[in-house]
Structure formats: C-alpha cells, structure tokens
Amino acid sequence: MKISLGPILYYWPKEKVEAFYRDVADSSDIDVVYLGETVCPKRSELFLKDYLDIAHQLREAGKQVRLSTMTLLESPGMVRDLVRCIDSGEFMVEANDMGAVFLAQQKGVPFVAGAAINCYNQHTLKYLVNAGMQCWVMPVELSREWLADILSQDVVQDIRSCFDVEVFAFGHMPLAWSARCFTARSENRAKDQCGLCCINYPCGRSVTSQDGHQVFILNGIQTQSGHRYNLINQLQHMHGLVDVVRLSPQVEDTLLWAKRFRNNLNGGQNYCLGEFESNGYWLKLPGMSRMESVSHYES
Amino acid sequence: MELLCPAGSLPALKAAINQGADAVYVGLRDETNARHFAGLNFNKDNLQEAVRYVHASKRRIHVAINTFAHPDNWALWQQAVDAAVHAGVDVLILADISLLAYAAEHHPHVEKHLSVQASATNPAAIDFYRQFGIKRVVLPRVLSMPQVRALSRTCDMELEVFAFGSLCIMAEGRCYLSSYMTGESPNTAGACSPATFVRWDEQADGTLESRLNGVMIDRFREDEKAGYPTLCKGRFSVGDELYHVLEEPTSLNTLELLPELYQENIASLKIEGRQRSPAYVEKITRIWRQAIDLVKESPDHYAVREEWNQVVSSLSEGCQTTLGAYHRKWK
C-alpha cells in the first residue's frame, strides 16, 4: 500500500506551503502528493505555475505528483483554469467535478476520480475506468463493506488491475460545498468582500454545539467533519482492497502521522484515538463515531 | 416556462394538477428516491393511477430515481427505472451514471432529466452528461442569477431551477453532513437528518432541545418556535458567537425573479416539497400558476402581489423567505 498526501485544503501563506512541501520532499513516508487549490478560486497565494514548480521539486525527490482540481465549478473562468490544469500535461489530474472528468476524457488523458465524484457502484466505476480513470478515491461516506461489495462484483473483476483504490484515511473530511462562504459569514463579511480571511484560520474554524461538542470545521465554502478521521488502526484490514491511503495535510504533525501510518501498515500497534477523532464511516457507522475495538469486522 | 410541482402522495398530485401545474414530479417508495420519507411516495399500483390522472389532464409526470445505486442491490434501481417506464411516465429524473447509461441503452426514447443530485453546475459537467441523451438539467441551488444567466446563454440545454421551498444550502449530491451524524445521507439512503434520529428534550425551565443522533442541533426558549432539526439549520457556536452558522431556517422564494427567469428561457420552475401536505401543494401551486401566467402575459408589468407574499411567508420555514444563492449578497 502506498501513502498519499491530499491537497492542502486550508488557505496557507505561500511560504508556509513551500516549507511544508520541502519537508514532504525529504520524507520517505510519502509516495504520492496531490497539489492544488480545491476549495476556493479566490485564494491566490499560489497559482498553477507555483504548484508546477513544487511539483517538479517533488518529482525530483521521487514522489508521484498529481494536480487536484477545484470541486465546485461555478463560473466559466473556473472552467478555463481547469482546462489549463489539464493541458499542463505533465502530471495526472485528480478530477473533483464531472466537468473535469469530461475534459480529461475528451483529451484522452488519464485521471484520478476524487472523493467528491459520485461513484457508488460497480457500473459507475466501470464507466469511469473506460473513460480513463486510473485511480478511484472512494466517497468519504462509504464503508469497508461497501468497498468490498463493489470490488467483488463480476463487472469489476476484469478491470481491477486497471485502477488503484484510494481511501481518505486521516484528517478532517470534506463533507459539503456551498455557494456560501461560511468563514466570511463567521466574520460577518459578505462573500465578495471576504478579505481572504481564510488565511487567518490555518486549520479552519471550529463549530461547536450548544453543549460544547465540536461538530464541524468551517473552511471557506467547504464544511468539514468536526472530528479528525483517523484509520490508523484499520490499515491492516485494507490489504487486498485498498492500494493508496490518503492523509490530508494538517497544520501540525502531518509527516509524523505519515510515519506512524507507514509503520502500522501491517498493524501491530493499536492507537488510542482521541476524543475528537473518529473512524465511523469505514466501520459502517455514522461518520462522527469512534470505535476502539477493531476485531469485530475481521474478514 | 413550465410549472413543476411536487407530489408525495396522490392527493397532493391531484391538488397540483387541479391548480394548474404543467407537470408533477414523484418518487417511488424506496431508497431509489432522494426524498424517501415514511408514509410518502408511490408504489407500482398508485404510480399507474397517478400517470392516468396526470395524462387525463394532458399534463406530464416526472419520476425521480435520484439516489446512487448500491453495489449489492443494483437491480433495485434498474427495476425502478423499468417500472417507471412501464407505468408510462413522461420523464425519468436520474443522477447516477450507471442508471443514466442503463436508461440511455434500454429506454432511449424516454425523456431523461439530470437530477439536481448529480450536481452539474458548469458547461463541462453538462457536456459530460449529454452522452446519456439528457434533455434537461436541474441546476443545484448554489448558482447566482448571473451564473444561471451565463449558463442559459452559453449552454444548448434545457435548464430547470428551484423556484420555491426548503433551501438546500450545500451543492446537492455532494453533502455528507447527514451521514456524518446519522449514517444516512441523501446519496445513500435518500434521507437528510432522518426523523428516526431526532430527539426532543424539554428541560425543567421550559427550554426545548433538539438533537440528531445525540448531537444538539438547537435549543429553544419557551417563547421561540421550534423547527425541525435539519442539521445545517442548527444554532452552533463559532468563537464567542452563537448563531445559525450555516443557514437560518428559511425558504427559497423567487417570485420576484420571475421576469428574469422567463427572459433567460428557463424551461421549468421547480417547487420543492414532496414531503408537504396536499393543502400546502394546493396553495403554492395556485400562486405560482397565477404568477407564471402573469409574467407570460406581460413580463414588463409583472409585479409580486401582496396576497401571494402573505400566503408564501405563512407556508415558509420560520415564516421567512430568501432569494438564496440567486442573490449575490446572500453569499
């Protein structure tokens, strides 16, 4: 199993992003790196050219690099950016919208289908493989059982060697995208006068219920899980199903966690998850749930 | 410009048709339907009765089979498509690629619309779905009026927009908030904030707390009107502020946008609310019929009537309405 690093979902200053990827280049625990802005087209610390510079450095350091596209494409300008990203040609693209799938398919370039692409069954999966998909990032809300169900279907058997399965396994999960910017709203700003205030929240803004539980994280137009998803104790049960496990960059300790994941790919160590961590979706439970015992679903 | 009204039951369907809906949309009584609510929707028998009633009035009936098919039970979705076609419906509303491909191959002559759950917001995404022979795209409620206009002018595709009803604040088909809290989402179970997970707790001081699978969604003083705990409409805290972090309980209302939508050749105005009562559907359909007739007759002299506003706000969540994403400022 490979370990990937998803795109940075938060809005970080350029220097911080560059420093982060210098450390990534030096890490032997990361195999695949996704680069790009997937949340908000206004964020302007880095442009495609900057990401390509980082991509070249990471490739020289031996990483597989992929470019991630915007998730909610609302304007013609955003589609033009998408075309530029796909046309850059050197790196595989992670399509996060069907518009990106269409453009990749038309240009005959292979692509990764991101977790926001609605692929819930074997026939849709096969359709995407025929369209050029080489890696499928399963929707975050699906379980191990759902994944195993899909992969065991006859129509998938013949094509299983044509694509990798990737699972979001660490970080706050993107759960929704809106026309509204919740970070701007939280500062009482209009979206078109947001002042790019996301930059003040390198790990998003915490949303708590009236009885004090962290329910969500606001990240611009994206709403994330309040709990940090963490499948470190489930890695040993992914073999044969999952080819790539994805860690989503956090403001601290991302590479430390990558090392822990690397060391635990075959199990061995059982981590005690924190109060604000969860693993529910994988275990066919509500996403916010946390199950300490892992033996019950052994297959 | 078509008036497309919701029907969660035969009485609601008849009310919509009798009040002048050009078309109605319904769903089946199972998880193929993104509005899979207990006690609502249609089985094979009353779907046929619905088709007969609608066709006798020379109107059209759309069937939404708009959740995403499960791997171990894909045939259920396939059978839903076949059953709807067999019942004689006019339009299939689909979101899942596998079902669009199936319907394109096996029912090429049946009109297909792309469900809002497919979340197509741009020309490239719409172009992707053309290969399945879709005739119309239902736009997610995330686009502003200028964005709708731009799509309408550049895309050779019929567009349907939401005109009135509950407001989904997230891009439809890409929202997992409900499964995060309950394990059931619109995509997988046809449910958002499902009622089986709702709990109301009344405290000694009269405060009423609403919870969804144990998570506190809101807390109402005795003098406040308590709303259903749809999780995106809860009151939460960010920093020191307690407020409706994602969205207030309010309804979308585009009555004042009608001339513009008409001018931009929007093919259909969709009224949300298959979970609503026949009386609700009747009142809303009557108003929208009048409004559309008025705008068609004389778009320049159209004005929203005060009596419409009164009825509309009395039927809206929290008695409030908004232009939602159509209005830039809302964002």
From TrEMBL, chain A:
Q: How does it assemble?
A: Forms a heterodimer with UbiU.
* Entries under PANTHER family matching the protein: PEPTIDASE U32 FAMILY (PTHR30217), UBIQUINONE BIOSYNTHESIS PROTEIN UBIV (PTHR30217:SF11)
Q: In which pathway does it act?
A: Cofactor biosynthesis; ubiquinone biosynthesis
Q: Provide the cofactor list for this protein.
A: [4Fe-4S] cluster
Query: InterPro entries attached here?
Result: Peptidase_U32, RNA/ubiquinone_mod_enzymes, UbiV
**What protein am I looking at?**
Ubiquinone biosynthesis protein UbiV
**Entry function:** Required for O(2)-independent ubiquinone (coenzyme Q) biosynthesis. Together with UbiU, is essential for the C6-hydroxylation reaction in the oxygen-independent ubiquinone biosynthesis pathway.
Q: Which family does it belong to?
A: Belongs to the peptidase U32 family. UbiV subfamily.
Presence of the UniProt keyword 4Fe-4S in the record: yes
Which region is the signal sequence?
A: none
Could you list this entry's UniProt keywords, alphabetically sorted: 4Fe-4S, Iron, Iron-sulfur, Metal-binding, Ubiquinone biosynthesis
User: Pfam families attached here?
Assistant: Peptidase_U32
Please tell me the species this chain comes from: Thalassolituus marinus
**Residue sites binding [4Fe-4S] cluster per the record:** 40, 181, 194, 198
Reading the lineage from the top rank, the first entry is Bacteria
TrEMBL record, chain B:
Q: In which pathway does it act?
A: Cofactor biosynthesis; ubiquinone biosynthesis
InterPro entries linked: Peptidase_U32, RNA/ubiquinone_mod_enzymes, UbiU
| Cofactor needs | [4Fe-4S] cluster
For the keyword Iron-sulfur, the answer is yes
Which residues are noted in the entry as [4Fe-4S] cluster-binding?
168, 175, 192, 232
Could you list this entry's UniProt keywords, alphabetically sorted: 4Fe-4S, Iron, Iron-sulfur, Metal-binding, Ubiquinone biosynthesis
The UniProt record lists the keyword Iron: yes
The record ties this protein, via PANTHER family, to: PEPTIDASE U32 FAMILY, UBIQUINONE BIOSYNTHESIS PROTEIN UBIU
Q: Quaternary state and partners of this protein?
A: Forms a heterodimer with UbiV.
Family recorded in the similarity comment: Belongs to the peptidase U32 family. UbiU subfamily.
**Known function:** Required for O(2)-independent ubiquinone (coenzyme Q) biosynthesis. Together with UbiV, is essential for the C6-hydroxylation reaction in the oxygen-independent ubiquinone biosynthesis pathway.
Protein name, as recorded:
Ubiquinone biosynthesis protein UbiU
Originating organism: Thalassolituus marinus
The gene it comes from is ubiU
